[in-house]
Design goal:
By secondary structure, the protein is α/β, with parallel strands linked by helices. It is built from 8 helices and 10 strands. 36% of the residues lie in helices and 23% in strands. β6 and β7 form a beta hairpin. α1 packs parallel to α2 and α7 runs antiparallel to α8.
Length: 276
């Protein structure tokens, strides 16, 4: 029997500028059930650990349990997530990056009540706003779905349609992530695919979170090329190896798209250098 209603998994790396606001948004939640708050600092080189500990000591709620850990080495986002999932003891797990914030105080309650009443879904995802490093709202760059929707496993093989910090999912056996020697930096796609193997993910477009888009996070630092390669090729290779061959068509399609997108550019560059 799982001793907590929800495990909140906060993963942070060099988030000193944002982690206090992130954790404060967690404590503003009106959820009244039992909570396990897991904070994993991935060997930050700034003051993330000090600031996070200070916030937790001042604001922890009576019916919440805290697991705080600083990794002795930098594991990378995938292995840090894997570690957090092993620690989680809640019936449901809510994921939050250390630079994002929950802007709707009813987020946990809404997701928990829905998943408790609707056993035909294994996860609940919500919409998000984009904000910059100063908290100013930005145009909606990704995650633009405006309709309530059910996402099945095959719908999640491409670019993720929603943001990780807005997802709550059941703590189920299929979420035991396989060991990996490479850090895919595609936690969102891998997590969503595994969450939806047995049952779909419910999506509510209400914007319950703010995703911080800044030069310190992966999305803003990835070029179009890196997004294509990392998400479409590397991640599908990972899923083929660890989950099954059903991801092979997705990998082949991604490879064709990659060739169409960059093949002409590569040939033009070679010709411009008079190699051909």
């Amino acid at each position: 029997m799982q001793p907590f209603d929800i495990s909140i998994l906060v993963l942070a790396y060099n988030s000193s500028k944002y982690v206090a606001e992130c954790l404060n948004s967690v404590f503003l939640q009106n959820f009244t059930g039992s909570v396990q708050l897991i904070f994993l600092d991935d060997n930050s080189t700034d003051d993330t650990e000090t600031i996070a500990r200070s916030v937790l000591e001042k604001k922890i709620k009576a019916h919440w349990a805290v697991h705080f850990e600083t990794n002795s080495v930098n594991l990378g986002s995938y292995l840090n997530l894997k570690k957090g999932l092993k620690i989680a003891q809640g019936k449901f797990i809510a994921y939050l990056e250390g630079d994002d914030i929950w802007v709707d105080k009813n987020k946990l309650t809404t997701q928990y009540q829905f998943l408790t009443k609707n056993d035909s879904y294994d996860a609940f995802a919500c919409g998000c706003n984009f904000i910059d490093e100063n908290g100013i709202q930005l145009p909606q760059l990704y995650y633009k779905e405006l309709r309530e929707k059910t996402f099945h496993n095959k719908d999640l093989w491409g670019y993720p349609p929603f943001q990780t910090s807005g997802v709550m999912f059941r703590n189920i056996s299929q979420l035991k992530l396989p060991d990996s020697s490479i850090n895919t930096n595609c936690n969102d796609k891998i997590l969503f695919v595994l969450c939806s193997i047995s049952k779909p993910i419910y999506y509510n477009p209400e914007k319950m979170i703010a995703y911080r888009y800044h030069k310190g996070n992966l999305t803003s630092n990835y070029s179009e090329y890196q997004n294509t390669v990392s998400r479409a090729l590397v991640t599908n290779s990972f899923l083929i190896k660890h989950v099954g061959l059903k991801f092979l068509p997705s990998y082949l399609n991604a490879f064709v798209v990659f060739l169409k997108t960059y093949g002409i550019k590569i040939v033009q560059r070679i010709r411009s250098q008079q190699i051909l």
